[in-house]
Predict the 3D structure of the following.
Amino acid sequence: MSSLYKRQFVLTAGMILVSFALLGAAFFTLSYQYTIRQTRDSMERNADYVANFTASVRSIGYGVEDEVYITMVATIARISNAVVLITEADGEMVVSTDGSTVQGYKDLGGRYLPKSVSDTVAQTGGYTGMSDLGGFFSEKRYVAGTPITIKTVDVTTGQTRQNLVGVAYVAVEASSLTELWRAFTTIFFFTAVVVLCIAFLTSSVTSLKQTKPLKEIAETARKFGHGEYDVRVTGYEDRRDEVGELAEAFNAMADSIAKSEERRSEFVANISHELKTPMTTIAGFSDGILDGTIPPERERAALQTISSETRRLSRLVRRMLDLSRLQSAENVTAQEQFDVSEIMLRVLVSLETKINARQLDVDTQLPDDPVMVWGDPDAITQVCYNLLDNAIKFSEPGSTMGIAITTKASKAHVTVRNTGQTIPPEELAMIFDRFHKSDKSRSVDREGVGLGLYIVKTILNNHKENITVTSQDGVTEFDFTLTLA
């Protein structure tokens, strides 16, 4: 499997190489064209100067064999590092010099330029191109030619004419033509190699730094998957980039899973405790009756205890089935309109016996008009029943229990309030957990199994609604919302 480090490095290195290749191609093309253009312009200027100078010399009666003329032409050839060649109009070579040596008419032996070169000069008024001039040079050179013309006046007509009397050529070796370009190329290649080395090193270090945190997170995830729930990704708390966000998200997920695992363990322990206690009681009393340990006069009390514990087991199983149904992925909350005030009053009437048993007063603050909301009326009935039953159970005998329904914006707020023992702040955060009881010994609330408020929270979560709880100065208040219809 190709690692992310390799892919990142290859991608970055490839982009750098392609960029330099394109940049190099553009640089080479532009620099070569610039060098050729500069050399061509220089040669054409030199050829023009030699042609004008030759025309001036010949116009005053001097020939191309004159020593002063040849010296000047040789000087131009030496300065321009080129070969200057003078020919007649028909292409016959008369003077050739590279600045250090001079070949005259006799030395050239009546040699002629190729007819194609002479024709080009006659037709276009000049010549530029690569040529060995019919074998005159041993290799092709860049040649620029300019016609040598002299003005003459026709004595009969008085008209001035330009007569072609020769051609001045300047030839430069190809090696000298590209010398500057090669210098540019050398500098470019040297710079490119240095930059590429730095870029590859930087890319390697950057890719390594990008992949190292991912490897550490992957290793931590493997350890976490093997049950080491205390491991976390460390060292990236100060990073404000995506890696820091990933590490933070992973640690948050690990904390959540660790808490879920802790709750699962607690859930199993609570289930075991809730099942073991009544079953142990039932088994003990049953065995006592069967083996005669319990005398006949106490058998009825024992059977009553067995019946009570059996009903407790039944309630626990029923609540567990309710939880299974509520948490099932197939559970879909029915949405219909109903009057939440009517449901609250109906539940209140059903709990009248329990209310009277604790001698409670009920303060109801319900609107005169129906409060129509969206939801599952059966599920919300269970929410109201659990909250009211919980409020009755933990109210001080003879105190007042409050029920209120108000509307705000698009929500109906249902409030259940009781007066009793204040719930400690550290308990409020766990009050909706499974099997949570404020009385850890479970001696006060033997009727409950610690699932009522958890079921309330689950039902309201399925409805996408919220529930809050406050407890101060002995007054505990639950408030949940429903969406108005």
Summary: The radius of gyration is 53 Å. Residues 440-446 have pLDDT under 50 and may be disordered. The first helix runs from residue 4 to 59. The longest strand covers residues 160-173.
